[in-house]
Amino acid sequence: MALHSILQHLDSSGTYAMILFVDFSSAFNTIIQALLQDKLSQLHVPDSTCSWGSISTISPQGCVLSPLLFSLYTNSCTSSHQSIMLLKFADDTTLIGHISVGDESAYRWEIDHLVTWCSQNNLELNVLKTVEIVVDFRRNAAPPASITLHHPPSPWSPILGSVIFQDLKWELNFSSLTKTAQQRMYFLRQVKKVHQPMMVHFYIAIIESILTSSINIWYTAATAKNKSRLQRIIRSAEKVIGCNLPSLQDLYASRTLRRAGKIVADPSHPGHKHKRISIASDVHDNDPITYSFATKIFQRI
């Protein structure tokens, strides 16, 4: 959603995007119980549910309900400007400013508002991990003033396991995926020594999950070299396990088809009304998606 909104905005001339990746210090552990109960009541959650339990740390790190409770706790933190998008997933928060004609006032106002809201709700910004990225492809444009967060600005930031660089290319992301998957091959070899029957399940949970993280977003932008690096890991896993595994292309096809089906079935999804356009844009001469696969997607639509 973040990438789509940025690229769509940059289609217009004289535009650029400013993105603030927000990180909180011990987010789940800083929730105030009284505030949470008030927020739940405002969302019409029954009082009997709101009063469940009473502990000093209302939403401990690692608790199953912590992401949900934090999402409800921050539900009232929203954007007031149409040109600003505030994306939240549990404790991952991203503020995207769609800047036109050089007017950054709304973006900077929203940052001030976010900082104020956090202080009022006992959430502390981790300035060492909060990163701002400016995506600007204008020619001869003066670099916009970055937000001062007491540390040097970084040209990249991780978001939900994927690494976004300021030029919107994916080289760092591929390097990160490759490194993590290669490290986990060690554990696959150890499993082979003690419990061979569970090796495929272990591979799917520990290695394939890394290789396919956001694959429907970055796959079409991957070079042949990038794909080859990731495919070599799959081939290495096949040799260790002793059976054939889905190729990177097959994994991309199955997950894209599954994702398309979910968007088609969900009218509330932001991409639902654009489903034909967004899917069709992936089917072009240089894309490895086969015509039959594209046909399956359109049949679902």
TrEMBL record:
<dbReference type="GO" id="GO:0016706">
    <property type="term" value="F:2-oxoglutarate-dependent dioxygenase activity"/>
</dbReference>
<dbReference type="InterPro" id="IPR043502">
    <property type="entry name" value="DNA/RNA_pol_sf"/>
</dbReference>
<protein>
    <submittedName>
        <fullName>RNA-directed DNA polymerase from transposon BS</fullName>
    </submittedName>
</protein>
<keyword id="KW-1133">Transmembrane helix</keyword>
<keyword id="KW-0808">Transferase</keyword>
<dbReference type="InterPro" id="IPR015095">
    <property type="entry name" value="AlkB_hom8_N"/>
</dbReference>
<feature type="transmembrane region" description="Helical">
    <location>
        <begin position="200"/>
        <end position="219"/>
    </location>
</feature>
<dbReference type="Pfam" id="PF09004">
    <property type="entry name" value="ALKBH8_N"/>
</dbReference>
<keyword id="KW-0472">Membrane</keyword>
<dbReference type="GO" id="GO:0008168">
    <property type="term" value="F:methyltransferase activity"/>
</dbReference>
<keyword id="KW-0695">RNA-directed DNA polymerase</keyword>
<dbReference type="Pfam" id="PF00078">
    <property type="entry name" value="RVT_1"/>
</dbReference>
<feature type="domain" description="Reverse transcriptase">
    <location>
        <begin position="1"/>
        <end position="164"/>
    </location>
</feature>
<dbReference type="InterPro" id="IPR000477">
    <property type="entry name" value="RT_dom"/>
</dbReference>
<dbReference type="GO" id="GO:0003964">
    <property type="term" value="F:RNA-directed DNA polymerase activity"/>
</dbReference>
<keyword id="KW-0548">Nucleotidyltransferase</keyword>
<keyword id="KW-0812">Transmembrane</keyword>
